[in-house]
Design brief:
Organism: Citrus unshiu (Satsuma mandarin)
Radius of gyration: 15 Å
CATH topology: Cyclin A, domain 1
Helix content: 40-55%
CATH class: Mainly Alpha
Protein name: Cyclin
GO molecular function, one term: protein kinase binding
Shape: globular
Number of strands: 0
Distance between the termini: 5 Å
Structural class: mainly alpha
Order of helices and strands: HHHHHHHH
CATH architecture: Orthogonal Bundle
Pfam family, one: Cyclin
GO biological process, one term: cell division
Number of domains: 1
Length: about 180
């Protein structure tokens, strides 16, 4: 929904340059849902990595509000954010070359995307258990709206981050475009 709406919006409005590194020449011929399933199937990352990856993308949009998630960048944003989440969340994870094969990009490109994401986030990759739980609840509500009754696995080992150190965007009452529209 978000990428469709932003695709129409971006045709009439200049897009910020923050996400240019993530833009492909053309949109991949795979749906977002199938792409996420592929990442999950082949990387064996924990389900919490997808929630944390979602947090990263939302943080990115708060830090760079002129940026839009569109069909040309969403797949690269997803594989990169899930990979970084896996590195911070999971005890064991595959290397960048493996994620690159799964994600359909070159290893060199994924290395660049990872660095770009980290710099765009100011290396703010820690997620408190409170923020994690709030994103899980939001995603479950989105799934209910879309006719899915599945619960999100909430196995989460809290990182030693105080709630005080969270970015201000997560402490505001306003919802980001990503949270209000959803990723699908």
């Amino acid at each position: 929904q978000l990428t469709k709406g932003n695709g129409v919006f971006s045709g009439s409005t200049p897009i910020g340059t923050s996400l240019n590194t993530f833009h492909g020449v053309r949109a991949p011929n795979i749906s977002i849902a199938k792409y996420l399933e592929r990442i999950y199937k082949y990387t064996n990352c924990s389900p919490s990595c997808f929630v944390v990856g979602y947090v990263y993308i939302d943080r990115l949009l708060h830090r760079h509000p002129d940026s839009l998630v569109v069909s040309l960048n969403v797949h690269r944003l997803l594989v990169t954010s899930v990979m970084v989440a896996s590195k911070t969340m999971d005890d064991e994870h595959y290397n960048n070359a493996f994620y690159a094969r799964v994600g359909g990009v070159s290893n060199a490109e994924l290395n660049r995307l990872e660095l770009e994401l980290l710099f765009l986030l100011d290396f703010g990759v820690m997620v408190s258990s409170r923020v994690f739980e709030s994103y899980c609840l939001h995603l479950e509500k989105e799934m209910l709206v879309n006719g899915t009754t599945q619960k999100i696995e909430k196995a989460f080992i809290s990182n030693p981050v105080d709630d005080v150190t969270e970015i201000s965007a997560e402490n505001t009452a306003s919802c980001s475009p990503l949270l209000s529209i959803g990723l699908s």
